[in-house]
Design brief:
Oligomer: single chain
Largest sheet: 2 strands, antiparallel
Radius of gyration: 22 Å
Structural class: mainly alpha
Number of helices: 14
Order of helices and strands: HHHHHEEHHHHHHHHH
Length: 272
């Protein structure tokens, strides 16, 4: 079963569908041939993922807003041209993300949408099979380095000291990957907070969460944690000194180290 072609959706539009959701989709198909609802099938994605992404696109564009109630499952299967199982998978995924909530009677409602929820598909939708480490860290370099620059400029004195303490405290966990991973999360989240930009922070958090399972394995390689801790301290000391050039350069080196160790771990998954 596949999503309807443009011609099929156009037929729905010509037949004057009775529910607003179907009319909305048909209208977007006619007006925007290359929109999220009108583009070609994404071969590497499941039907349920395509549906979830298209509902997310409607939310991001403002076609669906917080508090809006989605149509019935029967109406949505007609609108999307799919069967119920993939639709239910998509609705379940969006519910887990916190984008939708199920109400009595089986109808779904759009929740209050924070920036973190709008980037939640990073965490849920990217599978290990689709994971591209170079693309991932290229994206992190764009977002995270700017966050470090902003943090160096904007963070309060108290937060700067917290960032430094988290970095230095990592020295106690060279031989404890689990404890270090917990500290690592706190360190990066402190940088995100220091940047003072919720949208960038949400993007950074989403990108951080991608590929965590692979990086979990990489963190067990001898000396990997020790090098990461040294780099954390370099970043933190530059943030405390308000030296944005040194902080961003140190953070780039850190990302390159994490990327390279991740690649090594993926190439030799059984070496641990």
């Amino acid at each position: 079963m596949v999503l309807k072609t443009k011609a099929q959706v156009a037929d729905i539009g010509n037949a004057e569908p009775r529910d607003a959701f179907s009319r909305m989709i048909a209208a977007e198909q006619r007006e925007r041939a290359q929109s999220d609802f009108g583009g070609p099938p994404l071969e590497r994605r499941s039907i349920s993922e395509q549906v979830a992404n298209r509902i997310m696109a409607m939310i991001k564009s403002g076609n669906l807003k917080s508090g809006d109630q989605l149509p019935t499952e029967a109406q949505m299967t007609i609108a999307f041209g799919i069967s119920r199982p993939p639709l239910r998978e998509a609705l379940k995924a969006l519910t887990i993300m916190g984008v939708l909530e199920s109400r009595q009677g089986g109808r779904y409602t759009v929740t209050h949408l924070s920036p973190s929820r709008l980037v939640a598909p990073f965490n849920v939708m990217l599978s290990v099979a689709d994971y591209n480490v170079n693309e991932h860290f290229e994206a992190r370099a764009v977002v995270d380095v700017e966050i470090v620059r902003l943090c160096t400029d904007r963070a309060s004195p108290e937060l700067r000291q917290r960032i430094l303490k988290l970095a230095v405290d990592g020295r106690a966990f060279h031989q404890d990957p689990v404890a270090f991973r917990l500290l690592d999360i706190e360190f990066h989240e402190a940088l995100y907070v220091g940047a003072g930009n919720q949208m960038l922070s949400a993007l950074a958090q989403g990108l951080y969460d991608v590929g965590l399972e692979v990086r979990r394995v990489a963190s067990t390689v001898p000396d990997i944690i020790e090098k990461s801790v040294r780099q954390h301290v370099e970043v933190a000391e530059a943030v405390v000194a308000r030296d944005a050039i040194a902080a961003t350069a140190a953070y780039r080196r850190h990302l390159e180290h994490v990327r390279d160790s991740t690649i090594q771990s993926m190439a030799h998954p059984g070496s641990q």
